Amino acid sequence: MAYPHLAVEISGPGAHPAAAGPPGAAFDPDELTRVARLADDAGFALVTLDDSAQPSGGGIEAGVRAAYLALRTQTIGLAPALHVTTTEPFHLATQLASLDIATHGRAAWLVSAQNSAAALATVGREPLAVEALREEVRDVIEVGRQLWDSWEDDAIIKDVATGQFLDPDRVHHINFVGDTFSVIGPLITPRPPQGQVVVLGADTLGVTGQLDIALVDGIDLERQVSRARRDGAPRVFAELDVLLGTDESAQTRLEALDARTPWGPPTRLRHVGSPEALRDLLRRLAEHVDGVRLHPAVLDVDLPGLVEQLNGLGPLRGATLRETLRLPRPINRFATSSREVTAS
């Protein structure tokens, strides 16, 4: 029986509030590389790198961590969380395009929208109302996709005879005007290898139709998946906390962790049990979702267990993340329109 695509969150010490990792791990590039390579070698589709927009949160910014891993991983997708509310849209799109170029087509964007007063104070903004926040998320995703299309695939011609590097007719201004920002474009990098970076985010963002992957918490799985697909998400991943049994039972481990800081009621699907039961759960989930994003309860303990138990179980990976996920490479909107103008 088939297994879903496997993604794993590798930021912080783990999903359990009492999780602890090696001292200084948040600033240790060798530890970051070690963890990412575990998932890479196991054949997982992608790792996500969550982030806090507040400098006091500690650690290195997710986009920087992903860039560091670009040449230190082989075939796994890299999905940093970048915040639409605290990052200029043009810089965000450029950062992700550069990551895709550096990884030869393995970049993704975990859409995040910090809206706390403390986070927004770092950029001199006030918290947004719910609908205004959703509109800003929509605008930033849309401008990102337009900027990734602003260079046609064949814009770089490298004509030695004329000394011409690119064809200016194939590099386009996007002239985007939103409620809170405007962008003229074009991007300062060529079109990403994937055409457009894979975009994933929670179904609760209210922009499911703009995502490549909608993340659902799985508490009401069938209804959530049905709604996400109806709203236009090409792929749907379930979120899953995992605490595995090791030398001691999973329940004993959970009780020891809860004695320090209680985990509380689940806010997403949660597996506390044996590796065998986890594999059964993943096979059942594969009947409903395309993938699962795993959240190890204690990264240093549960990630090695996940790697050992799930090594090679997901679908085979392709040359790019889009190929791995069986997502088509988007047609460049400007190339299509410019060809139509020429033809007419």
UniProtKB/TrEMBL annotation:
Molecular function terms, GO-annotated: monooxygenase activity; oxidoreductase activity, acting on paired donors, with incorporation or reduction of molecular oxygen
Superkingdom, taxonomy of origin: Bacteria
Pfam families for this protein: Bac_luciferase (PF00296)
Species assigned in the record: Cryptosporangium arvum DSM 44712
Ranges where the Luciferase-like domain occurs: 21-202
Keyword Flavoprotein listed: yes
Protein's recorded name: Flavin-dependent oxidoreductase, F420-dependent methylene-tetrahydromethanopterin reductase
Keyword Oxidoreductase: yes
Keywords tagged on the record: Flavoprotein, FMN, Monooxygenase, Oxidoreductase
InterPro entries: Diverse_substr_monoxygenases, Luciferase-like_dom, Luciferase-like_sf
